[in-house]
Amino acid sequence: MTGVGAEDDIPLCERKTVTDFCYLLDKSKQLFNGLRDLPQYGHKQWQSYFGRTFDVYTKLWKFQQQHRQVLDNRYGLKRWQIGEVASKIGQLYYHYYLRTSETSYLNEAFSFYSAIRQRSYYHQVNKEDRPELVVKKLRYYARFIVVCLLLNKMDLVKVLVKELSEEIEDYTQRFNTEDQLEWNLVLQEVAAFVEADPLMILNDDNSGVVISNRLQEGGMPLLEQGMVVGQLTLADALIVGNCNNQVKFSELTIDMFRMLQALEREPVNLATQSSKPGTLEPNEKPAKRENPHKYLLYKPTFSQLYTFLSASFKELPANSVLLVYLSATGVFPAGRSEREGPYDFGGVLTNTNRDVVNAFIDIHSVLVYLFPFTRKPLFIIVDSSNSTAYKNFSNLFGQPLVCLLSPTVYPKSMQDPCQRGSLFTLFLYNPLMGFLSVCGLSSMRYGLWEKAQELLRKVFHDIGQMITSSRVIDQAYLQFYGDEFLRLLMIRFVFCCTTLRLHKLFREAGSFPESYPPLPKQEIVESSLLQKRVLELAAMLDVQNLFSDGMLDNY
């Protein structure tokens, strides 16, 4: 509204429209800012607050749509303000995805972010002499890129990165700001993140093919009649990234990015379920689909890690499993005592602002303080240069416990496996991509990729049969086998073990993955059938010269 006299000329109904809009706008900002105060852990404390926030933003969005002309004329509503509301709704959906692990919310976030770009809501921002508005636009681009990365929309990511680069250049030229280096670092991080994929899959016309690595229907060996497995369900997962110098974007390392997708089902596009296709409205009741709830912890302190572990453990439902994934730089003890305990084997690095001595205590604690959490079913994956510290675990409470541990050394001829993502995690995320990586293959035709995947499905079926029919395997593996995500992780782990044991470059003592409890070697890891399958895959890809014909006696 402009001026007191002008306000008197406004019809009462239009004045009320502006007043109602201002109320909804202020209420939405208040609720959105309050989200920062909610605890990041726990399942229940935040749900009612999120619900109220969604409700207000839904009303606000519909209100500005219904009264756009009045708000334009009487309030002076600008397009960037509409864009801000849409951006906030996109953020709400993204954070709801982080809280619930329901991948369909990513599509909802994408819908709003995409509409902002298509409708040029932020277009006029560059013409205003207000750097804070331009920063809003830059932050919108960064958030949109994260959602596109998680949805594997890589072509769009490249376009958005180019647009962001141009926006940053314009921003830094027009305003003498102190955050120029920070925004350039954002560009460098996302460029490195996109380039971290070790393989390009090509169509016949040499265009790239984007492969989804989330769990799809029919994407894993099914339970067959006669298989006696447990009924446990993976309910919670802590995904921890603390590798030095690893590619990252927005507090998400490449290893964390890969593992979180390995624990998700393929998203469903909820927009197709809308009663009004093509409209942009917050969807209030997405379809319910079971994914394990995840906490993403980038370089947490030990106390933060322990807090999240405790909260997850406390709320773990009956007959459920807690998964802990640690991708971290290994730290080793300075010396060994005569009596070796859990502290004497080192562990993995947690973030700390204290001195090196105290950091070392924290590092050991990650291992030893996991013991209380073995009172419930626990599934641990450690990807670290000191992963073998975790094979000295003790199952004190008799609950199912499995640790999958990465190799601790890699062939010197291979690129640093940590910087662009660990080879071990790559196998757990996409085993065929891991296989091609150790073979030095960086591109492949889509037709050959599909043939290799078909063979891999047979390999996985064989591994599943070996695990469930073994009479000497630890019962923990069978207890976890009933869950689809854990089943796939265990099968991919076995495939990784056999592949690296046959590969000629992997010959040092620490070159192979290990597990606790140990898997039967002759029946599973060194099975002649499994070796034959791996060599068949190598022959299909014309890389059989990189593999031994059979197991060597000594490693």
TrEMBL record:
Entry GO MF terms: transcription corepressor activity
Hydrolase in keyword set: no
InterPro entries xrefs: SCAI (IPR022709)
Gene Ontology biological-process entries: DNA-templated transcription
Pfam families linked to this entry: SCAI
Transmembrane portions of the chain: none
Superkingdom: Eukaryota
Region (Disordered): 271-290
Coiled coil: 154-181
Alphabetical UniProt keywords: Coiled coil
PANTHER family hit by this protein: PROTEIN SCAI
Name of protein: Protein SCAI-like
Upper classification of the organism: Eukaryota, Metazoa, Chordata, Craniata, Vertebrata
Gene that encodes it: LOC107723359
